[in-house]
Amino acid sequence: MADFTIQIKIQNAVLMICFLLFAGPASAFDRQTPVVQAVRKVGPAVVNISSEYLVHNRINPFGANPFFDNFFQDFFERRTEKRTSLGSGVIIDGSRGFILTNAHVIERAAAIKVILQDERQFDVRIRGTDPDSDLAVLQIDSETPLPSAEMGNSDDLMIGETIIAIGNPFGFSHTVTTGVISAVGRSIKSDDRVFHEFIQTDASINPGNSGGPLLNINGELIGINTAIYAKAQGIGFAIPINRAKRIISDLIRYGHVIQAWIGILVQDLDPRMAAYLGLKESQGVIVAQIEEESPAQKAGLVQGDLLLALDNRKLLDVGEYASAARAVSPGNAIRISVWRDGQVKEVTVRTKTYPAERVPKLAWRRLGVEVKGLSPALRQHYRISTEQGVVITSVRTGSYLANIGAQPGDILLQIDDKTIVNENDFTTAMINSRLKSAILLLLQRNGQVYHLTVRMAP
């Protein structure tokens, strides 16, 4: 029995020696994890974005006294500073050089450069931006095709699945962080904006990460990281790639997002309205106004209808409705669940593109102005030297602009992020901003430029 035991031990020892000789190190292939493979696959498509912008300051010799700020600011010495911001981006089309990033990464940029992983540098053209979704598409020219990321599917994300973020936080190029999907469909508020339908992760997303890719374990692009939530610690947010796809298509094709025209204005449902309608809780949004000859009116929606869902997406408040409406393309047929007369009805609305011929009435009603292109006759009449912008020819009495002193002869140079060169630009900007409660204007008078935040009339 003892001899048999010794024989077994000898055989085991021989087998172990053979395994060590021919199998090699046990961990040789264990280090090639899916994370490593995904980073190697997508890393070359991640870019560092460096943008320069100018900051104009007036030096007040009287200190911080608001009296002098208000009445003598035009006489203060002006100082211009050049500042640089860093961000990330990901190449989504290597043959055409398209790069996807956050809109706030290139906001106010006077010059933008892109640096690839192999340290090649490129000058950049802005193909299009959409501040409402915080997305932008840039374009670079390369003599050879560039590496690009493969788009995945953000509609089937699983809570707890592994994700990978690549970016340039604080200037540290191509930094990789990992984590899991913590939640989907998050809404977060930053400054005066609310962003909806975000992916939440526990991967570190810091300044400089903004615009970089969020990947699944297969190295597929499922989101665009953003660092717009200043209070986040150990929490990251990303824009789902499926929501971004339609925006990307419009930015590449038109330079801005073409918003579908539904033709309604909505308001939140408060508890008293909910009780009046016989609802147990406040859910949905109330139709406050319907535009004449609009798709909504033709579909049979009426003022006072309670909208519960749009294409199966629950409408909890006005913000949710705005987010859902922005995801719709012109020409789409959308299903809206409506609470009317104590029951739920389904209404189908065929959306359209907002008619350009309605913009003059829209501008007069909501903004309170009439404008015209800068023809030679108008430049002479108002003694205008610039050739860009549109001139305000009439201001509606009682409008917000009238109350703050706007007057005929003022030049309108910008609406939100849209530069106004001619009447076509004004038309496009008004259509894009028509659903907002407030917009940012850039006005010029007598050579002086003024930034104004203007409340829009209903």
Q: How does this structure look, described?
A:
There is one protein chain. The chain has helices at residues 2-23, 34-42, 66-72, 241-254, 271-276, 295-299, 318-326, 359-367, 376-381, 400-403, 423-433, and strands spanning 46-59, 77-93, 98-101, 111-115, 121-123, 125-130, 135-139, 162-167, 175-190, 193-201, 213-216, 221-226, 236-240, 260-261, 264-268, 285-290, 306-310, 313-314, 333-340, 343-350, 352-353, 369-373, 390-395, 411-415, 418-419, 438-445, 448-455. By secondary structure, it is α+β, with helices and mostly antiparallel strands. It has three domains: 36-256, Thrombin, subunit H (Beta Barrel), CATH 2.40.10.120; 260-353, Roll (Pdz3 Domain); 356-455, PDZ domain (Pdz3 Domain, Roll). A hairpin with a 5-residue loop joins strand 4 and strand 5 (121-123). The longest helix is centred in the first third of the chain and has 22 residues, at 2-23. It starts with a helix and ends with a strand. The mean pLDDT is 85.
Secondary structure tally: strands: 27
Largest sheet: 7 strands, antiparallel
CATH domain topology of the largest domain: Thrombin, subunit H
The side-by-side strand order for the widest beta sheet comes to: 5-4-1-2-3-7-6
Radius of gyration computed on alpha carbons: 28 Å
Q: In CATH terms, what is the architecture of the largest domain? A: Beta Barrel
Unreliable spans are none
Roughly how many Å apart are the termini? Answer: 98 Å
Nearest-integer average pLDDT: 85
Number of helices: 11
